[in-house]
Amino acid sequence: MHPLITTAYAAFNSRDIDTALTTMRPDVRWPKAFEGDFVTGHDAIREYWTRQWGEINPHVTPVAITELPNGRLEVTVHQIVKSLDGTELFNGNVKHIYTLRDGLIQAMELE
């Protein structure tokens, strides 16, 4: 696994926003999968995740990483999303596409 990606997912799953943000550029572009659209920057991601975790409980585990011909990383993840009362809302694989710049995450997209 790619160390940057491993660190980012481990931090997300443990709700350690500060560590997760160290894997990202300050001007990172991030999808608001839970709401649609995108946010840009550390403060916007912190706000989005904090709001998201107040409404749902997602856990995302990378299972495969492929470097695409354009240099981006395609990460297949197993995602389990539960309501705060524990009801399973989603359980399956999705793909996250990362653009890296200067060794940090510049952007993430959902496929």
From TrEMBL:
<dbReference type="InterPro" id="IPR037401">
    <property type="entry name" value="SnoaL-like"/>
</dbReference>
<dbReference type="Pfam" id="PF12680">
    <property type="entry name" value="SnoaL_2"/>
</dbReference>
<dbReference type="InterPro" id="IPR032710">
    <property type="entry name" value="NTF2-like_dom_sf"/>
</dbReference>
<keyword id="KW-0413">Isomerase</keyword>
<feature type="domain" description="SnoaL-like">
    <location>
        <begin position="7"/>
        <end position="106"/>
    </location>
</feature>
<protein>
    <submittedName>
        <fullName>Ketosteroid isomerase</fullName>
    </submittedName>
</protein>
<dbReference type="GO" id="GO:0016853">
    <property type="term" value="F:isomerase activity"/>
</dbReference>
